[in-house]
Every structure is written in C-alpha cells, then in structure tokens.
Amino acid sequence: MRWFALLCLTASLFCLAPVEGTAAVSGGAIRGVVLTMDGRGYVGLPMNIWDGKVLRTAVTDINGNFVVNGMVPGSTFAVRWKGKRAVDLRIDGLRFPKDGDLFLSLELASTGEGKTYTVRIPSNPSTGYGWTILSSGRPTGARLSKNSMEPSSQADAAMTGRGGWELWTFEGERKGIANVIMGYQRPWEKQKSPAAYHILSLMVR
C-alpha cells in the first residue's frame, strides 16, 4: 500500500493515545518516518535533532522509520537531514509536547514548474484535530493550490473514529526546494505543541 508506512505511524492519532516508551529511557520520544514520493520508506537517512543543548541522532531503518529518545518535555528543537539531493536541510522552531511522544513524518518529493504534487495524510476531524500549514523552512517555490478531505474507506474501518485523509495540493512556481511544515492540532489550542508534524520537502525542477 502506497501510504502504509505513514498510516502505521499516525494510526494512533485517530484516538490520540500516547505511545509508551521503555522504562529505561527518560524523557519523551520522537517517532518518525521518512518517505519518498512513491510512498516507500527512505532507508539509511541520518536524522539530527538539536534542542540547543544536546544533539540526538538516528538513522532510518528499512521501512524509513526512526526513533529519537530522551527529548525534554516542552522543549523547542530543530531537525536536520542530508539525503541524495546533496542539500543539507534544516527545519527550526518545532515544539516537543509537555506530555507524551511526538510523531514526525518527512516526505521527500519533486515536481515541475507549473505541475502539482498532492500530500495525502491521515486525519480524524471527529477528535477536533486537523492539519494546518505552520510555516516554510525557506523561501518557497511552491504554493498551496487546494485542500480537501477524503473519507476513509473500508480498508481503514479498523481505526477508531470517523477518520479519513486530508489532501493538500501544491503547485511548483519556480525551481528550488520548498519546505512546508504542517502541524496536527486543534484550532483552539494554538499555544500547545502539535500532536504531530508533517514536513514536505518539495523539489521543484
């Protein structure tokens, strides 16, 4: 399934239950996945997490998953990665929640000038949560074209609540890399850290 890895990672968002860590690890954990534009896990990508005091590292596994333990509740951090594009990219100003773990998905994609690319991510409006664009990590070469909701199918029936998929379509405007940061949160809780982040790194050719 094209989005199986992302679906597995964010399935718990539909009930918003925190993921339990091991007793031996203090602090919270970032549980993430890095996907290519065809929905496959990005293998062997070094991930660096910096909170201003401690640099924590991880490498994505065969499914594109990674875990970073020991995060300080309520802290602000940056995520940095360098893939085959030979471009060192960094996203600043992300917030770790005061309670529980944080889900972070990174999508590496490309499109052409005047062409579109659609992000498809799980969402459950029945909880009050939804995805919103927070900011761009660098001057963007893409613009939001449209946003819509796709109801869940029979295949998603095992999930709690009336969930589905949010579709975010971006159009490439000029050559370069556009980093779009999206947060999964309730609109009336802007002061709280999002329950999850989704970062689209879109290369416009």
Describe the secondary-structure layout.
Elements: H1 4-10, E1 28-36, E2 46-50, E3 55-59, E4 65-71, E5 76-82, E6 88-95, E7 102-111, E8 116-123, E9 130-136, E10 142-151, E11 164-172, E12 176-185, E13 196-204
Parallel strand pairs: 1-7, 7-13
Antiparallel strand pairs: 1-4, 2-3, 2-5, 5-6, 8-11, 9-12, 10-11, 12-13
**Main beta sheet:** 6 strands, mixed
Structural class call reads: mainly beta
Strand residue content: over 45%
**Would you identify the regions where 5 or more consecutive residues have pLDDT less than 50?**
14-24
Order of helices and strands: HEEEEEEEEEEEEE
Strand order, main sheet: write it out: 4-1-7-13-12-9
Question: How is the CATH topology named?
Answer: Immunoglobulin-like
Total separate domains: 1
Roughly what percent helix? under 10%
Task: Please state the CA-atom Rg, rounded to the nearest Å.
Answer: 16 Å
Gross CATH architecture: Sandwich
End-to-end separation in angstroms reads 27 Å
CATH class: Mainly Beta
User: How confident is the prediction overall: mean pLDDT?
Assistant: 84
Multimeric organization:
single chain
What is the number of helices?
Answer: 1
Number of strands: 13
Shape: globular
